[in-house]
Predict the 3D structure of the following.
Amino acid sequence: MSAVSIETSSRSKLVHWLAGISVATVAWVVAYSQLTAFADWLVDVLGLSRQTRFGEALHFFFYDSPKVVLLLTGIVFVMGIVQTFFSPERTRALLSGKRQGVGNVLAASLGIVTPFCSCSAVPLFIGFLSAGVPLGVTFSFLISAPMVNEVALVLLFGMFGWKVAALYLGLGLLVAIIAGLVIGQLKMERHLEDWVQKILGGQAAHPAGETLSWVERFEAGGAHVKEIVGKVWPYILAGIALGAGIHGYVPEDFMASFMGRDVWWAVPAAVALGVPMYTNAAGIIPIVEALIGKGAALGTVLAFMMSVIALSAPEMIILRKALKPTLIATFAGVVATGILVVGYVFNMVL
């Protein structure tokens, strides 16, 4: 084939990719903007009402499932393209050693402006890993994104004032940063699943310095989506199904009865109770307000809130596809310890 023919073919492929990406981007934005309407429609078609617990649970599943899959697909595609510019070795070198602490701070700060629930943050967590970002840094983001975001801060400010919001911001970021640093220092990359370790080891990346065409970069992004989304989507649906099953079944009176500050075990009990539940900051803060109105201590309730949105069981199910049980247990233990400290500090200060 002549050079002219090869160039013409390459241009044709590039035009097709650009057209396809443009159409897919518009479709992605439209689909994402209609998630609530889609869930409402499906619930109506089934003849159910969101006023019932079952109807609300189904609505939650119909809304969150496509949302997380859309996020995962878009983020992984972009990260697949980014990976062709920066090899995992180079990315790790930039964020390792003395810069790792800076990376944890930046990752935790990024979480503030990404209003994701824990399951929605998992796709970007996987994307960070696939781009070679150190494990501890990715965990700082995974913790911060659901727990400390502008939705939580605005609602806390509106309900409890700026002091509570500021203290929550500071302590939440501290938990995310320190937990990420601790996990990074433990050097637990061997407890990632094999397919993730291959990505981190550079086996799935293009050699550093190789010049690629945009068509090849787009193809790498598409292959990234096929590899990662194809592996984790069943876990996503299983995790969200679990979350939907327990969404709306929050026994406020029962929880408020032992969430006072009189007993030392109230904070650990609140954290343990929060783990099986699943919602986002906007969904849990009205419950927080109701619990406080029934006499629960603020620190104990905020510890419950943090465990719901940063240590949810559905999140653990989704993470299981990328992490081995030892790493999941370490992550949960480190974060739970940080949340316990936050709960006790709030109860002592306020």
Notes: The CA atoms of residues 193 and 300 lie 35 Å apart.
